[in-house]
Each structure stands twice: as structure tokens, then as C-alpha cells.
Amino acid sequence: MSAPAVVGLDVGGTTTKALVVAADGTVVHQENRATAHAADPVPGLAAELDRLTAVAAAQGLAVVGAGVVTPGLIDEATGTVRYASNLGWRDVPLRAALQDRSAVPVTTGHDVRAAGLAEQLLGAARGVDDVLLVTIGTGIAAALVGGGRALTGGTGAAGEIGHAPVRPGGEVCPCGQRGCLEVYASGAGVARRYETRTGRARSAAGVVGGLDTDPVAREVWADATSALADALVTATLLLDPSVVVLGGGLAAAAADLLEPVQAGLSAGLTWREPPPVALTRLGSLAGCLGAAAMAMASAGRDVELAGWTAVPAR
Ligand SMILES: [Zn+2]
User: Which keywords belong to this entry (predicted)?
Assistant: First the structure.
């Protein structure tokens, strides 16, 4: 009899990441593909699940469940993606439609919440409850994980910290508000603010790379980390997280991100200790590992799931 495994799929605006994870937590297959932007995304994703099931079978593994996570506004009760702007999806009944076409049980969820679950299960917040994960990539979003689940909110829109107005009356955000955290601290925001000042296009990573030599890069990055610290002051006072984990692409800035954010958070909290702030240990695979973990939980394999420790290379 084949050993059990699960599939995790993290569908992003640009890249879809996939993992096959054996029930003991060993990552046996990992791949990234360009996301196909089809009018109906379901047939392509169902074919992807079939293919990954075959990949597992070729290694002597039987897939007992698949987890599929996406960005956007998600009705978790029905597994419907209400709206995902960077996928171009509206009212996609993802879980039901995939389940109709797939031989394995399918569970669906939100990418950042899944990443938060993964960081708590086997990442930077292992064994800690009340974890606030903030992912800083093209945009910024957060997940609060406690008691083994991530807060979804009344409309499924919990965690949109990127649109918290940290600079009231500040620069305009594409969402229509002013002074949103994303305007200053997201990858897109950092790149845009650098280009506005210099006329030179540079990615956020490029801005970080210029911190030693370029005063404009230093100024834009200081604005980013101070906006992020201010958002975390409010989040800390509201939620009292045991740890704050910084993830997403900009976590690659490492100490250049962590140190000013820690300092700003400490300075902003006068009467209480700041929570520890840590960098992601799972990197860009956090959402995908979370999807795989959700599939394990939904297959009733919580005992094996609790033993997962494998952290694949970033
Ligand atoms: Zn906004």
C-alpha cells in the first residue's frame, strides 16, 4: 500500500507554487509555474492537481488531500473566492468546482492566513499562540493565528493591514484612500516613491541594495520601516500578539527591515513591552506549506501534522 501524502497549491498573481508533502512532513516535490490567467481557472487547477497526484504516485505516495490557497476576499464557509484583483477572479466557487473534478478531497483558503498557520506550525512562530504574520510583498497583508486557526473576520476581509491609514491625509493609494501603509512600505510603494524622487526605476530590493550609498534610498526605506512600525504599534495594542513575523518578498531585506522596525515598535510603545519581531523561516513557501497543512488537517491527520518540522530551502 502506498504511503500517504498531500498536495499544497498557492495560486499567486504571477506564480503558482506547488508542493507534494509526505504525511511525515517530508517535502518530496516542489515547483513554481507561471499562473495561467484563464477565464475559468478551475479546469487548469484541476489538471494541476491530477498531475501532482501522478507525481506523488510515481514516488510511491497516495495523495489523501489537496489544499489550494489564493489571495483575495474569500468566503471560507463555502470555499468561494468573492474577489481576487490580481487573479482577475470574481465569485469563483473554487472548492466545490475543484472537488467536482478531483478524485482527492480538496480544501481551499486564503494565502496569507495559510502562511500564518504554517509559520505557527513549523516556522518562525513554532509552538507560539497569537501570532501576527505580516507579509510585505507587492502589497501588504496580515494574518492573526490563535488556537490553530486564523481570524477571518465578519466578511472574510480580516488582515488588510496594508490599507490601514498610517499617514492620515498622506499619499493616495490605488484603493482610493490616502496614507495607507502599502503606499509607503509595500514593494510597489517603495519602488514608486523612489522613482518619483529620482526619475530612476528601481525595485524595492534595489532600493535596499542602495542603502549604503544612496541617500534617497535611505530616505524612502526609512519612511517604509517607520510606517510599518507605526502600523505594528496599533496592531500590538489591539491584538497583543506573542510574536510578530515579517514575511513576503521584502523579508529578504533581513536586518535592514528587522532592526528599524523593532526600534520603531519599541519607541512607539511607551507603557508596555513590544512583542518580539522575527523574520519568516519559510520564506515564499509559507502559503504553500500552509495549504498542504490544511489538507492534512482536513484529512484528519492532525497527529502526523503536529510532527512536521521540514523546512524546505527558500
Ligand atoms: Zn489603500
Answer: Kinase, Transferase
